[in-house]
Amino acid sequence: MTETERDFTMQQTDRHMACHTTPRLRMLLDVLAGARTVADIGCDHAYLPILLAREGRAAHIIAADVRAGPLRRAQENIARFGLTDRIETRLGDGLSPLTPGEAEAIAIAGMGGTVICQILQQGEAVARAAELLVLQPMSAAPDLRRFLYQNGYRLLRERLVQEDARIYTALIAQNGEPQHFTELDCYISPALRAERPPLFSAYAEKLYTQLRTAISGMRRAQRPHARLEEYEMLLKELEQWIEGKDIG
């Protein structure tokens, strides 16, 4: 391959990566910046590890996935950018490819909150040994917050980002002690309420609308829903908090 051909190939590769640098991915990059060793669990195409390495945000990155197919694609992408000396790939389920203390920061992103809970539970020793857990649930964020509170993880802060019409959250946590929490804390954490980051108002308003819609559906059901009373109390608490704290 001539130098011109190599330059053209690299330009194509750069354009490909630019197309996949989404707001969610950029948020994760910012949160993980400065960690010595980062493990990306469920790395898929390895876009996050590649950008961490290219931008010098981590000294060493471990890209892990439970499926051989996505891991092969990750390896191909890593090789395309000449980063095989910076990014190590591993095949395995959840946190099983890691040993406790091996990764300073662990990212688990793009999965449902319930799946993330299972990964943390099954790989507890690895999760608790990490200095930072960066968790970006695609769904069931309240369940994930509840799991963290109940199982002795400190929810340090949250980051919000908008991608298309949806607002995503990244939970930044570390090992700690079980703590008292309310149902409202599971839906809007104390960290979010205290920091009020950009998009907070939109996030709270969307949550309020979702709860009202869910309650309306439960009330129309022929049989009483088991969680109807719980949701009604939560909606009232959220409404009172919004009115008292002005989320605008």
TrEMBL record:
GO terms for molecular function: tRNA (adenine(22)-N1)-methyltransferase activity. One of its GO terms (biological process) is methylation. It holds the Pfam family Methyltransf_18. InterPro entries: SAM-dependent_MTases_sf, TrmK. Keywords: Methyltransferase, Transferase. The keyword ATP-binding does not apply. This is SAM-dependent methyltransferase. The lineage of its organism: Bacteria, Bacillati, Bacillota, Clostridia, Eubacteriales.
